């Protein structure tokens, strides 16, 4: 595996930004989407990655992706819990999504209304659910996974 090269990441991001100073440029970007791939790819910093964080520049509309570590260093968004929640429901589609994953799924429009949002929050810490609740949780989790987890990486 290669290592993180922050200078290489800066060289990738600055031309896609309006600001030419990295500290100002990084504030132009926001997280748009995440995915977990089975195949290895490369972050612009040079690190081998399977966890992709797609970002978009709020000012000029440019987009790119970076790895999970660089999104934390670069935009200062902690995606560790988000990826942990995603992996949890990928391993068990009846598992409870964590707060970060629920918020992400809601923001991305993967939840159908306030009722699903409240249901996930209300059952996030519960261990014993009725068969109907388990079925509903499974349906929601599968929808989140189908929108987020990519089995085979294709070039974007």
Would you summarize the structure shown here?
With 156 residues, this protein is α+β, with helices and mostly antiparallel strands. 44% of the residues lie in helices and 19% in strands.
Task: Give structural attributes.
three-stranded antiparallel beta sheet, 156 residues, 44% helix, alpha+beta
Strands, helices and their partners?
Layout: H1 6-13, H2 22-25, E1 29-42, E2 48-57, E3 63-67, H3 68-74, H4 80-91, H5 99-107, H6 113-123, H7 131-148
Helix pairs in contact: 4-5, 5-6
Write a structural description.
- It is a single chain.
- The protein has 156 residues and is an alpha+beta fold.
- Helices cover 44% and strands 19% of the residues.
- The chain contains seven helices and three strands.
- Helix 5 (99-107) runs antiparallel to helix 6 (113-123).
- The longest helix is centred in the C-terminal third of the chain and has 18 residues, at 131-148.
- The chain is elongated, with a radius of gyration of 17 Å.
- It starts with 5 loop residues before the first helix and ends in an 8-residue tail after the last helix.
- The mean pLDDT is 91.
Shape: elongated
- Helix amount: 40-55%
Instruction: Tell me the radius of gyration.
Output: 17 Å
Average pLDDT score: 91
Q: Specify the number of helices.
A: 7
Q: Strand pairing plus helix content: what structural class? A: alpha+beta
The strand line-up of the biggest sheet is 1-2-3
Distance between the termini: 22 Å
What ranges have pLDDT less than 50 throughout 5 or more consecutive residues? none
Strand content is: 15-25%
How many β-strand stretches? 3
The SSE order reads: HHEEEHHHHH
Largest sheet, if any? 3 strands, antiparallel
């Amino acid at each position: 595996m290669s290592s993180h090269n922050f200078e290489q990441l800066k060289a990738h991001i600055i031309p896609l930004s309006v600001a030419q100073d990295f500290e100002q440029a990084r504030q132009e970007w926001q997280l748009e989407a995440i995915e977990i791939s089975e195949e290895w790819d490369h972050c612009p910093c040079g690190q081998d990655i399977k966890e992709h964080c797609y970002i978009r520049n709020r000012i000029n509309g440019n987009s790119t992706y970076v790895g999970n570590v660089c999104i934390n260093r670069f935009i200062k968004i902690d995606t560790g819990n988000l990826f942990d929640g995603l992996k949890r429901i990928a391993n068990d589609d009846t598992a409870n999504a964590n707060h970060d994953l629920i918020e992400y799924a809601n923001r991305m429009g993967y939840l159908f209304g306030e009722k699903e949002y409240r249901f996930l929050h209300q059952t996030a810490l519960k261990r014993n659910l009725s068969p109907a609740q388990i079925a509903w949780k499974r349906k929601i989790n599968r929808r989140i996974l189908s929108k987020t987890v990519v089995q085979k990486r294709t070039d974007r």
